[in-house]
Amino acid sequence: MAERRSVHAVAVLLVFLSASEVVGQSPTISGGSMGVPELGRNESSLGQMPGAGGSVSGNAPGADRPVLGGAPGVTTPTVPPSLSDPSGRGFALGTAGVGPVPALPPASLPLYGALALPTVEDAGPPDGLTLDDALRRLISSNLDLHSRFLEIPQARADMLTASLYANPLVYFDTQLVPYGKFSPERPGGPTQYDLNISHPLDVSGKRRARMGVATAARSVIEAQYQDAVRLEIANLYEAYLGALLARESVRFSRAALQGLDGVLEIMRMQQKQKLAAQAEVDSVLIQRELAEAGVVDAEKTYESSKLRLGALLNIPPVEAERLELRGSLKVKTTPPPEGEELVSLALQSRPDVQAFRLGVKLSEASVQLARANRLADVYVLYQPFTFQDNSYQNKQSATSWAAGITIPMPVYNRNQGNIERSRINVRQSMIELQAQELRAVTEVKQAEKEYQIARSSVERLERTIRPAATRVLETARMRWRTGEQSVLFYLAAVRDYNLFVRQYLTDWLRFRRSMLRLNTVIGQRLLP
Q1: Could you say which residues of the chain have pLDDT below 50?
Q2: Which run of H or of E encompasses 197?
Q3: How far is C-alpha 371 from the chain's CA centre?
Q4: Residue 199: which H helix or E strand, with range?
Q5: What is the pLDDT of residues 184-221, one digit of tens each?
Q6: Structural domain boundaries of the chain?
Q7: Where are the alpha helices (DSSP H) in 314-415?
Q8: Residue 19: predicted pLDDT
Q9: How far apart are CA 366 and CA 90, in angstroms?
Q10: Which of 233, 234, 267, 455 could tie 520 with a disulfide, CB 3.0–4.6 Å?
Q11: CATH number of 31-66+110-166+202-375+410-522
């Protein structure tokens, strides 16, 4: 008998030495690692979530420790309060994502080739892609927006997670199992078999507070998605303008080439008549070849710009290369509202400002959650069956039941740190909202100034500069054709006129871009 007791003692010692965690007699349910609690994630593919800087953990910090231990007799469950959170850990918002919408670089006019004003305006084929068509296709087909949109159903899934109740626990244990057996000479026990049911009660309203945080977070996500759409539309504006500019560059380059072809034909006729020298013909030929190279380059640039536009609209490259546009850089429209009316529209309409406003509400909901997390759940125990084996005493075995309640005492940890952090986050969110509103107002003011400057520039261009430049070129042409000046004089005038045409295209691009940028910074489409 002494040998058997020694073997049993050695076995028990080995079990204790190899165990990583031993708590009492009853089962231990680990809810997570000890130490610093996990904070809620506040990022997604839509970027940083305004107002979610505080902890949104569903439980008080350090609450992963079991607070109820087993003991001989009628046992109670060793239950970590983290089970009051259905996820088994802190309630988390969103997922780590890829960041906000990147901006496309602005389109600009290439610095090669000769340009001339075409004699006829051409907005493209009637069935070409208009800006309105492109906007509709962007919303329905852009893959980046489709990916970011899935953040919204994920936020709804977070709401579902936050609304779930904690599961009850059912477990069975055996206590006072002898090494060998009990006897009148070696009394003990009796051996006991217990069936236990434990149910957590959320007395502090953690579930309701979690639902408030998840609902506020969903609203922020929806506003962030709307802002992602706004920024992607700004990218579409830039890509569409780039394609229009490239198409106009092709038209203007071809007009310049056509003009130089006419000059070269005249010079070759004069050479046959001994009225022009070979050097003069070569000068025109050089300009003509440079103009033809410019046409080729402009056509390649146009194809490249259509590929960039097609990528935004989820159009396959083969189809994008064949894409035709219906639109023009020269758009006449009534002036938009001015001054404070524009600012008021932006503050009401811009989804990024709305996201920061909703972020303040999210941070306030986080304060309520932190306060609810001051108290861990109360555990109600019902033990419907306890069997005590008295057979070793030749007595009748007994059955019984038990009930109990376990109330964690908030003596040391009342979640003071997270509550204070959440309160500070409310103030921080308000400051961020003020900063975002200031940025929005600044962008509106800058866009309005840019629009006014660009509008006055194109008005001056059409009213004064274009007629003057045309007259200068026609005068030089007449003086060359009448023999008053050589063709080199006329080519010099063509080069000066080319500078004007470049400025002409640049100014109209700037004006069209300022119109569309005003739409972006306002958050509404005020201008076509």
Answers
A1: 1-41, 54-91, 94-98
A2: strand 191-201
A3: 30
A4: strand 191-201
A5: 778 887 888 999 999 999 999 999 999 999 999 999 99
A6: 31-66+110-166+202-375+410-522
A7: 317-321, 340-349, 351-372
A8: 41
A9: 13
A10: 234
A11: 1.20.1600.10
